[in-house]
């Protein structure tokens, strides 16, 4: 089968915001305790942070990490996680029905993020709490000194303010499972008043208001419209969350699910712009896709977990090769919307629906999905280009006209490099790609990275990395035309310079 692309350096979508390669650490399962933090582990540093995990996080080049939740934030008292450790309370954590020891809190996580070369995307609790706790918390984190909460932070050993820039106004407040679930009007009113108070403390922050928990929520997209009508002038981003799975064991259909994400993004853009028009506003609200990933493998195991344990193995999806392919198509989808999606967080980062797994007292290892994320994060920086493509198509249970070729290109002017990202969704046949790149005169192929496995269900483990990328693709340029074989079911990164 044949597919074509045209990539021209002048056809630009937008500068890519590097924060689309963000991720997420929630106080959930073994993400924090036994994940990033395991005092006594052979690689633990003086604060108990595992350096083997930090190395893998740094390799992913994650510019921002959302924290501390997630559902957990909706009943979280930030005060529990600061100050002398021996005085911190053990709490019933209601979202995931575990015991939270509060050994790690805001200050320790800020330290960890620095070590990971990341910023923190902080969240306030708008489930059980509201304006008062939020304004105190931001004063504690961001105010330099000379006030009750900023001086409290200093007394806890943190002289410099953390200067957290991006803040989430609660989490998934449209979800009936959320502690403190609200109607769109209840949430919209609380969010706008909280936003105003937080900005009084620190006008330099950016705020993310909660959109729908996924695109099949009953109120979507009316939720977005109502919430933005309340908050439009006082927030910067609206959030989107979506998880995918192959419960039906239909891989052709599964690999087309990035089209669902594409439709979700388009609908949220349309809704935000509708409110913009209604308000005669000059301001544009951008998108923060701050939870996305594959999540379904662990559902059954999670139902068997006894409540009120400390850091049980919750949401430990063990990813296979087809999950990595889907993740590749989702990353390409963000790049195609680089003009409006400015933040995205792979949910999550360690152990909990994560690219990085850890063994207690043992190894940290890479899941299959680690690879496409790492490649996009490393090479998908610069300008997202509008590409033209033509590809044979197929129909599935939920989608029609699905192109076998999912692709895009990124131009990094500074490094004088252009990268094509491409997935061949065909399960049996190669695609012979012909890509017109004549505007990139003189560019040669640096490498053609391929992630491919014969078995869609192949998985990695601590013992063996069965699924890992190679650089044995055959891409070559001739007279400005790149020709490459895209193997059946493969993720491809073709770098030219
Ligand atoms: O990432 C796991 C959970 O998924 C988060 O806590 C919640 O926000 C979402 O439902």
UniProtKB/TrEMBL annotation:
Pathway(s) the chain acts in: Glycan metabolism
A Pfam family annotated for this UniProt entry: ASD1_dom
Record's protein name: non-reducing end alpha-L-arabinofuranosidase
Enzyme class: hydrolase
Source species: Insulibacter thermoxylanivorax
Keyword annotations: Carbohydrate metabolism, Glycosidase, Hydrolase
Residue ranges occupied by any Alpha-L-arabinofuranosidase C-terminal domain in the UniProt entry: 290-490
The family this protein is said to belong to: Belongs to the glycosyl hydrolase 51 family.
GO terms for biological process, alphabetical: L-arabinose metabolic process; polysaccharide catabolic process
Ranges that cross the membrane: none
Lineage: Bacteria, Bacillati, Bacillota, Bacilli, Bacillales
InterPro entries given in the database record: Alpha-L-AF_C, ASD1_cat, GH, Glyco_hydro_b
Hydrolase among keywords: yes
EC code(s) of this entry: 3.2.1.55
Coiled coil: none
Superkingdom field: Bacteria
Quaternary structure (record): Homohexamer; trimer of dimers.
